[in-house]
Amino acid sequence: MGKPVLVVSSGAGISAESGISTFRDAGGLWENYPVMDVASATGFRRNPELVHRFYNERRKALLEAQPNAAHRALVDLERDFDVYVITQNVDDLHERAGSSHVLHLHGELMKIRSVTDPDYVETLDIDHLETTPATRGRNGQLMRPHIVFFEEPVPNIEPAIELVRRADVFVVVGTSLVVYPAAGLMQFVRPGVPVYYIDPHPAAVGPDVYVIARKASEGMAELAELLERRV
Ligand code: APR
């Protein structure tokens, strides 16, 4: 008998305490950059230079950031659960905290991919994090940020749904639940599977969701205690 399966869906809020801006909070990324200019397929076609610069800036910010207590709490839960992290975040803080299973829905900041072959992906070298529209991969192809732009499909949503279907516990942390298909994951839990939602300003959710209206580091500590009593 393996460990119970705990699936987590995380958003920008889990990285807020690492000093990384969220998107829609006051002062968030979308207040300074029109999202359609820097994070959509149309914007990328119109002005690839601006888009590369936007992600270069976010990579630089990521270098200064460290995983926080919430990321680490998810790793600690691996003692009692098989923990699968599904994240909308493009940072690598879950990986750096030591989570064993991380599935990125919206891409990965530290990776670039071929403009023509979406399966050809390279991890950026820590000393060469800046890209431009002229950046080429080792195979000579022009490269782009390995980010899922608005107006593009989310290739990892199917495996993400499969994980949620297997969950014995489902946790949503640090997301405004505004962007689909990620926001719809909780509907795939099996009947009777407990759903927890940790967010200091939680979006409206169904009556069966156990809401912990606290920031991620505190909410994850409270959740760990709740789960201790269940295991
Ligand atoms: N701890 C937990 N949650 C927090 C914290 C914190 N310390 N600070 C803020 N939050 C919450 C906010 O209350 C909000 O609900 O994090 C959430 C951030 O919401 P968004 O900025 O909309 O981020 P997210 O939900 O991840 O956005 C989804 O939208 O722009 C696209 O592709 C981008 O992946 C992103 C997607």
The proportion of residues forming helix, as a percent range, comes to 25-40%
- Tell me the radius of gyration: 18 Å
- The name of the CATH architecture of the largest domain is 3-Layer(aba) Sandwich
Order of helices and strands: EHHHHHHEHEEEEHEEEH
Structural class estimated from helices and strands: alpha/beta
Please report the distance between the alpha carbons of the first and last residues: 14 Å
| Distinct ligands, ions and cofactors found in the model | adenosine-5-diphosphoribose
Strand tally, please? Answer: 9
**Overall domain count:** 2
Main sheet summary: 6 strands, parallel
Kindly report the name of the CATH homologous superfamily of the largest domain.
TPP-binding domain
CATH fold group of the largest domain = Rossmann fold
Assembly form of the protein: single chain
Mean pLDDT: 97
CATH class of the largest domain: Alpha Beta
Number of helices: 9
Give start-end ranges of low-pLDDT stretches: none
β-strand percent reads 15-25%
Major sheet: arrangement of strands: 3-2-1-7-8-9
Shape: globular
Features:
6-stranded parallel beta sheet; Rossmann fold; SIR2/SIRT2 'Small Domain'; 9 helices; 19% strand; alpha/beta; 231 residues; single chain; binds adenosine-5-diphosphoribose; 3-stranded antiparallel beta sheet
Task: Describe what this molecule looks like in 3D.
The chain has helices at residues 13-16, 29-32, 35-38, 41-46, 48-63, 69-76, 93-97, 157-166, 216-230; strands at 5-10, 82-87, 102-104, 107-114, 121-123, 143-147, 169-173, 195-198, 210-212. It is an alpha/beta fold. It folds into 2 domains: 1-20 and 67-106 and 154-231, TPP-binding domain (Rossmann fold, 3-Layer(aba) Sandwich), CATH 3.40.50.1220; 21-64 and 110-147, SIR2/SIRT2 'Small Domain' (2-Layer Sandwich), CATH 3.30.1600. The protein has a 6-stranded parallel beta sheet with strand order 3-2-1-7-8-9, sandwiched between helices. Strand 2 (82-87), helix 7 and strand 3 form a beta-alpha-beta unit. Helix 6 packs parallel to helix 9. The longest helix is centred in the first third of the chain and has 16 residues, at 48-63. It is globular. The two termini are 14 Å apart. The relative contact order is 0.19. Bound molecules: adenosine-5-diphosphoribose (APR).
